[in-house]
Design goal:
The structure is a homotetramer.
Chain A: H1 2-29, H2 36-43, H3 47-53, H4 57-80, H5 86-103, H6 105-116, H7 124-150, H8 159-175, H9 189-202
The structure holds a DNA duplex (21 and 21 nucleotides).
Chain lengths: ~210, ~210, ~210, ~210
DNA sequence: GATGAATGAGCCTTCATTCAT
DNA sequence: GATGAATGAAGGCTCATTCAT
């Protein structure tokens, strides 16, 4: 009775152990250097064990992506509940996304990896859980837009579209960060970023 | 004298020869499968020769990126010169970018590669020429905005910022394409994309 | 008592269950891809269980070989009982062997595997049962020869030898199938095969 | 001038060096244990170097097969030129084949490997040179049969077919060697083998 | 009886890069 | 200028087998 539970717990732990190692490597050496062999070494497990718990390399990363999205969702949720203003909420979302890309650059790189990679095939379950996690975030943003529309602050007939657009845009903005000072003239990236965010909101702001 | 010219021409040819091979491989097998050894085989040159003309693998890709940006610039230029309306011009830029990402997906992948890759060190000259090429595109967009402002259609005090923001956004939008139908609800991506583009323009449109 | 029976039956079932899985994999993916782990997964059993019922991987295959030989024996038996002519009986044996190698290519591959593999150690019982199964087939052929000799159709003082020789030869012929059109000139393999079989019989045919 | 020659010679030597190692491993540990990594280690070369000279693992083995067939051909040629009797020549061919399978068991295993392996794809050139080598052997046997027919010793209208059949049969006989004492009753394998060979010849021997 | 987690050596192959010629 | 042989670490992954529970 207790045995089965313990088994399950241990299994959970092993997975966590592997993901911990992967996360650390990701943060330290970047995605390209995070191979299964190195994860195994870092986790003090055998390669075989990694493959016992994960279908493959991409599977590990996929799990990390899910994790990252979960964290992001949590942060967005907690930081936007104390505000009434939908506009401020959206701004906060964007601010959090930038902050997330800096503080959790490991997770962000993974998200970016899957977004940039030409073609990756997921086992169905994995894909679904990632999509769900991502959808939750977009749903939340959509909800903020709906609030704003109800409060006569925003004018937008397709809040779902806007949410997707909003996220895609701030993702693009974050990605462009490394070009500051050259292609992107502004040396102060945060300024530039917040300028962009403001424009995005401006595009649905109801004119008085 | 004539000899020196021939030398220079041959050298130019060699570089072109290498880039041709790289381009073909890129187009056929994608970025991941385009290794120096394969380029050499395709170009019917020795690996050593590649390294004589290029500092390394990334250097070859960088050159391709410059090429890609050049093509993109050319397309933008030619497609936006027949219009007067700045708004239409911007819309066309966006349309071209999407089209470019589809038709020249090889080049687009390279651009994406350098944008997503955490940290790459370029030899100075290469970086400069890429930046210049990229800057030219942004400068062109900036100019369109300036036109719009002059014509009292747009209201924007920092057209340079807007150009950067505009490009970052449409890049993000294009990247998000593969999520259509899941995270991005809209199944018709072009609709979604053009919706976003419209929002972007809306954000600087002067209210009547 | 009843319990013991059930035990035995379940045990039998487990073995069957494992062999079923192995057989399916063999048929679907070939011998090389049929690993213990995959068998376990297919059989919905744990790897450990496989090792409880079988000494190892080779043991499973050995059992399949026995099975294959059993099937072969059955087919030979049933197809040769309606004929009187010993010559026709031998021809039929050969025909069946070729057919078997095509229709039951999975089983044939296993037989071939053990025949080609330099050195494999079997647990004694397994080896014995295989040998018995194989011997039964040869015994049957030998019997046909004896018949022929009695009927004054064949002349052969060592029918056991001939049976072994006959089988070895047709096995060699079947194996050589993949060389048709190159090393083996004849494009029509069945023609070539039946030519060989006829020669074999010719070698014991009594001259009139 | 001399440099190019030396290059070519060294290249030849390297290939030989690799094949030497492969051959040794093959003889010592068998085919299954002869991996590219082990070949490299044995040859005191890097893995990469193996792949510089051979397209892959199968390519190395293919070359060995060609080598083996060449040796076999040489032996057959030299041992059958001092005889006049076609019958003795055929018997000698068979004797040599058995001897070859024992003395050059490494080469024989490779031949057997390619014959038993369900499906192997060769680069075209390799396949061709193997086939040619094999065909040469069969052609030689065919010639012997033709001689016999001319000398009124054999009666055979399709000597090409017989050559293929002859080789397939003796190959099958050799393969069955490991079953001596069980399925193959005869404990003295050479007796059994020569019995078979005699039968084969008997099948084309003209009756007096 | 049965489980399934764990091992880790081993598989084939590709890679960017160097350097003597 | 150009060659191409050589490197060897690293890649992802599979394997038969063991063993504590």
């Amino acid at each position: 009775m207790g045995s089965r539970e313990r088994r399950a717990r241990e299994k959970k732990n092993r997975k966590e152990q592997i993901l911990d190692a992967a996360r650390k490597l990701l943060l330290k050496d970047g995605l390209a250097m995070t191979s299964v062999n190195r994860i195994a070494k870092k986790a003090e497990l055998s390669v075989g064990t990694i493959y016992f718990y994960f279908a493959g390399k991409e599977d590990v990363f996929a799990e990390l992506q899910r994790e990252g999205l979960e964290i992001l969702y949590g942060e967005i949720l907690s930081k936007t509940e104390n505000t009434d203003s939908p506009e401020k909420k959206l701004t906060d979302c964007a601010r959090i996304y930038l902050h997330f890309s800096e503080k959790h650059s490991d997770y962000f790189d993974v998200i970016n990896y899957f977004l940039s990679q030409p073609r990756i095939v997921f086992s169905n379950g994995v894909k679904k859980s990632i999509d769900e996690q991502g959808a939750k975030i977009l749903k939340h943003m959509e909800q903020i837009v709906v609030e704003g529309v109800r409060g006569n602050l925003f004018t937008e007939s397709r809040p779902g579209n806007f949410a997707g657009f909003f996220w895609a845009s701030i993702h693009g903005l974050v990605q462009v960060k490394k070009l500051r000072g050259t292609v992107i003239e502004s040396e102060n990236f945060t300024d530039f970023y917040m300028y962009g965010v403001n424009q995005l909101i401006q595009s649905i702001r109801r004119n008085q």
